[in-house]
What we know:
Blueprint (H helix, E strand, L loop, with lengths): L12 H5 L8 H5 L21 H8 L16 H15 L3 H10 L8 E2 L14 E3 L9 E3 L12 E2 L2 H9 L10 H9 L5
Antiparallel strand pairs: 1-4, 2-3
Amino acid sequence: xxxxxxxxxxxxxxxxxxxxxxFAGFEESLQPHVKGITGDPVTFGAGxxxxxxxxxxxxxxxxxxxxxxxxxTYSNMSYFWLGRVIERVTDEPLRQYIARKLLVPAGMRRxxxxxxxxxxxxxxxxxxxxxxxxxxxxxxxxxxxxxxWVGANALVTSLNEFxxxxxxxxxxxxxxxxxxxxxxxxxxxxx
Length: 191
């Protein structure tokens, strides 16, 4: 990917897959560079919004917390960048690529990557959180992200279709070598 922080240019993709690229999560990585719409640190929830391109531009400023390959640090930022790599290499939106290569072959025909925060999704369950200022704890607010970022999140599925994905661990059917795909799913290192 062009124009990333100089220390990120030579990190092998497998380090991004295994959370050993040296990056923190979205909030830890980006809070030094951006404030939410209220002026407070960004929370990446319903109140704050960055487009995928804005996130990419901000993420270019972020240096790894540790040397690549040195230690495990869970990082959604790595998956966001991997999504960008897939889009750049395939010249295809991640939503289409994931459907074509993974979801449809697994039989998950109603599942998809949600790349539009405004998309109406029939039968979708909505998360709620209690309002902090509710005197008796009975008031709630919708607790969903309004982000269009894909790679680290955004899979929309049902329990029934998730069970189809789970089946890939027992009877793999995806790809030219389904057993190799299954082995990749369960490996600790995606070498």
